[in-house]
């Protein structure tokens, strides 16, 4: 849903239901003018992959599963109900070291992915990013 549509309606998600229905690695739920809401499911033994968003702050909220946040070399166990903030320019990774899928949602400011993007696997996400097919909208 584009930002222009959200001004006239309430944008609402039952995040537990959305998480339960989506096994995709990454799914963009909403893209606004200044931020973006994305849900992710990291399989057991999987990870987001070490990265730095030079232009985007990121706030991650964890719904189910457990794993490790690795921020600038420091590691912290993360569980459901936790929130982790990753300021722009910060090296980070999130690794699922638990036995179940690790479900989280994240808010990017500004948007980091193409509006409506669905990446079924990390490999698909990486391929689309590298090929330039997962670019955020421009104003």
UniProtKB/TrEMBL annotation:
Record has Isomerase as a keyword: yes
Residue ranges, compositional bias (Acidic residues): 124-133
All copies of domain Cupin type-2, residue ranges: 39-108
Single GO MF annotation: isomerase activity
Keywords, in A-Z order: Isomerase
Annotated segments matching region Disordered: 120-139
Transmembrane intervals: none
Name listed for the protein in its UniProt record: Mannose-6-phosphate isomerase, cupin superfamily
Gene3D superfamilies: Jelly Rolls
Domain of life: Bacteria
Organism (species): Klenkia soli
